[in-house]
Amino acid sequence: MKMTPRTIATVLILLFLGCVPIYAQIAGEPFYLALFGRVLVYAIAAVSLNLLLGYGGLVSFGHALFLGLGAYSVGILSHHGIDNGWLHLLAAIVVCGIVGLISGAVVLRTTGIAFIMITLAFAQMFYFLTVSLNEYGGDDGMSIFQGSNFGVLKLDDPLSLYYTSFVLLLVLLFAMHKLIGSRFGMVIRGTQTNERRMKAMGFAPLPYKLTAYVLSAIVCGLAGVLIANLTLYISPSYLAWTTSGELVVMVVLGGLGTLMGPVAGSVAFLIMEEVLKAWTEHWMLVLGLIIVVIVMVSRRGIIGNLPGGSR
Amino acid sequence: MSATLFFAQALNGIQLGVLLFLLAAGLTLVFGIMNFVNLAHGSLYMMGAFIAATLYNHTGSFLLSAVGVVVAMIAIGFLLDRIALSRLYDRDHLDQVLATFGMILFFNELTRIIWGPSPYNMQVPPMLEGTIDLFGIAYPLYRFMIIVVGLVVALGCYLLIHKTRVGMLIRAGSSNRMMVGALGVNIRMLNTLLFALGAALAGIAGLMAGPILSVQTGMGEPVLILTMVVIVIGGIGSVRGAFLAALIVGVVDTLGRSMLPWILREVLSPSAANAAGPAIASMLIYVMMALILALRPQGLFPVRHG
């Protein structure tokens, strides 16, 4: 592997994320473990969104739907006394897979603005569903008393949860790297560049797009399982459209269609949010302006601006 | 459910529909001409409501605040378009979505700084208090006025777009922007005008909604999402489609919320109906949108190109 700036950045970011718990331990600041645990979860969700947004050119503005479905899978099962992590995982995968398949079959019939809006509409549909689930906390959300229990591995310990998320992210990045280089990835990227040409070459884009949509939904559901364990809390805010917006910001901030972009984006976004929150009560005002400026000035994102590699 | 209640709820639905139309009209034209996704349109509505409420509480004149809010919103719309949005017209949808998402955060926090976090109060003007007798049903006069104003604005939009020269340019622009530009029309200026007009309509919607909904930070987003549903169902760029879709969405949403629990109680047990009713009712229009788009991806009343 050539040592391009992009490779160096990748190694540095992953090394940094891997060392956070050590620093938190030495400095006696468990706060950092929680903050970067959140970074890891959002990174996983953003990587899954990048498959649609960056490689497929599908601007989904409702991806938080799957984050929420994953979280509610854990919350609802745990509420009924089932703390088996494998069941939580299975539920999240099945629910996200089915919802992804059905909603994907509908949304992929549209393009452009209609696609953005209908993905948003699906997320809103489930947002209101969770708001009205009074048995599971309704609008206010609900605490989870037992996290996912995977037998040998219990996610109720912050450190093991952190490293589980970290390893999952590494595996995901590796799988993404392989996927994008594969024939499937070529078709997805080709469809983004020129769908008509792909059709002329004899590919039917829809099955490929739908597969990417469902895959992305399931991976985002895994992030949902992790975030439910991290916060031990579920609420409709996971499915809110602002969460979808934040995920999109992370992907674009880091670099659309780059392997590490979503990770760099979620690190940068969540740190920025923490810094602004500490600085002023009206951090949203500044954050809003920063987002506008980022969009206007930088078109390729953090990783996208580093030389080295086309993706 | 009695016929009177049904009729009153249907009127409420139409009233929500015309409010949605006030927002959708401006948004769909900018969508249609510039192919521009503006999520910040809900923020314009929110700003309109706050400005109107402040003017009304200080002057006590509803008419004066109406004039004031229209002038203020035209100014805000003009500035917003010239300073920020015009740089985004050539970008792809993703950039537009993101930038206007940032603007929503900005405007929400701005209103929180200026007007504080708690809802800002605005009363129904004394002149419009009381009820009106519609075919034997007592209906609040103010809500009836909203319907009338909405229909008048809709008629105005129709005349503007179909009977004037500017309207002809707008229609031409939405079918082929480049060609209209090549014929010597300043399409950017036309769009700025349209954007300011859309902002003014959003301001009127904010003014009208102020006394019946609470004027508060974040009030724009739920309405924005409903407006997006309206535009997509109606067919992007079509004002006629926006009008009909706004009425459909308004009536379906309102009647769904009031009648579904009642219908469900006939088939399900009361507890199940009480649990499922509100959930299904709030999902109803999104389900409707998904169904319509699945069957007709271009919307119900698409603009005819070519």
From TrEMBL, chain B:
It is a multi-pass membrane protein. GO terms for molecular function: transmembrane transporter activity. It is found in: Cell membrane. GO terms for cellular component: plasma membrane. Keywords: Amino-acid transport, Cell membrane, Membrane, Transmembrane, Transmembrane helix, Transport. Signal peptide: none annotated. One of its GO terms (biological process) is amino acid transport. The chain crosses the membrane at residues 6-29, 62-85, 97-115, 135-161, 193-213, 225-252, 272-295. Belongs to the binding-protein-dependent transport system permease family. LivHM subfamily. This is Branched-chain amino acid transport system permease protein.
